[in-house]
Amino acid sequence: MLLQIEHLSKDYPTRSGPLSVLRDVNLEFERGEAVVVMGPSGSGKSTFLYVVGTLEPPTSGTVRLDGKHVPSCSWPTSRRATSTATPRAPWASCCSSCTGNSRPS
What we know:
Elements: E1 3-12, E2 19-29, H1 45-52, E3 60-65, E4 68-69, H2 77-82, H3 94-99
Antiparallel strand pairs: 1-2, 1-3, 3-4
């Protein structure tokens, strides 16, 4: 198994309370498996990809790659809003990804 997503949830704060975008998502993807993420506008597709791609931290739940926990990158909000995201390779550490260094030294 390559990618496991367990009990993944993501909430965003609003004036009227938390907005739950993802709730208790559980998925497993095997190596070489093709996957399509589909849904109407506002259904959480981009949020799901940001969380699984480690660009946003989940509110709860875990993402595992080959059985190892994948930490989310904690970018400052100003950087998140002004930078373009680049895909993270499995060997990239959170710190190198946040600082822009794409490969370990």
